[in-house]
Write a structure and sequence with these properties.
This is LexA-binding, inner membrane-associated putative hydrolase. It is built from eight helices and two strands. By secondary structure, the protein is mostly helical. A two-stranded antiparallel ribbon has the order 1-2. β1 and β2 form a beta hairpin.
């Protein structure tokens, strides 16, 4: 799927999960915590595509996520793509085809999701408040690039970077400073996993079972048959899936916050009588 669809799917997954936890596990979050988690998950849903590099010196090409912070993020994407290709080449078996790029290899696996989730959790837990602010800055930039793709394309990476800084500053000013927020690692991991699920319904699939060899192949691509696959950028993705993700997000937001607003309104009405 395209970047905006991935970002929307991440946001929808986190909002729906937050609603479910609130309803069935009595796990409540403040509006700011929900917003931060949603941004992290939406950004995390773009991270696997850092394995698609572009033309770094020209600030062109690459996946949506690679263009978030201009040349800097394109360079990171170039490194990730080469690293992923290296992992593929080092671990492939005889039946795995030869490749000249690393797209849809290591970053589209469950170990990658787990590694990012663990790393983010460790960073937030061990280094606390300021690590959280750094994570929010980076991931909110990815979320902005994905969720508001047309605006971000017109505004350019400098504006996106400044907007990410503003979000990080607002978060720093309003989140309690005595917590590490390790739950952010879960948001990143969920976002990456949702990305993988999204790519499984498009052509060619993803190596979700790696590093388990299947049919003497280490990098078996798993997904629905190509004849049934969703066309990247087609009407099913752009109209149906994005609409569904948007509806899920809005319903989840309503379920999370409307009851509290109504309860407070009723209390105010009774207090005024």
């Amino acid at each position: 799927m395209m970047g905006p669809s991935h970002a929307l799917s991440g946001a929808a997954a986190w909002l729906a999960g937050s609603w479910a936890l609130d309803q069935f596990a009595n796990v409540s979050q403040t509006p700011l915590e929900v917003a931060v988690g949603t941004a992290i998950c939406a950004g995390g849903a773009l991270l696997p595509d850092l394995d698609m590099s572009g033309k770094v010196t020209r600030n062109q090409g690459g996946a949506t996520v690679a263009r978030t912070f201009g040349v800097a993020s394109l360079f990171v994407a170039e490194v990730v793509e080469k690293f992923s290709l290296g992992v593929y080449t080092a671990t492939k078996l005889k039946r795995d085809p030869r490749r000249d790029n690393g797209h849809r290899t290591f970053t589209h696996t469950l170990p990658f999701c787990g590694l990012l989730a663990w790393g983010t959790t460790a960073l937030a837990d061990n280094y606390g408040y300021w690590a959280v602010i750094g994570i929010v800055f980076f991931m909110s930039g990815l979320a902005l690039r994905g969720l508001f793709d047309d605006w971000a394309e017109r505004a350019g990476w400098v504006i996106v970077t400044l907007a990410s800084g503003a979000i990080a500053w607002f978060t720093a000013a309003n989140l309690p400073s005595d917590r590490g927020y390790p739950l952010l690692g879960l948001a990143v991991g969920v976002g990456c996993f949702v990305h993988i699920l999204g790519d499984m319904i498009t052509k060619n699939g993803v190596p979700i079972l790696w590093p388990i060899p299947v049919r003497r192949r280490m990098w078996m691509m798993v997904g629905i048959p190509n004849s049934m696959a969703v066309k990247v950028g087609g009407k099913v993705e752009v109209v149906i899936l994005r609409t569904a993700f948007t509806v899920i997000s809005l319903l989840s937001i309503g379920g999370l916050f409307v009851p509290g607003v109504l309860e407070r309104f009723n209390l105010d009405v009774w207090a005024s009588k």
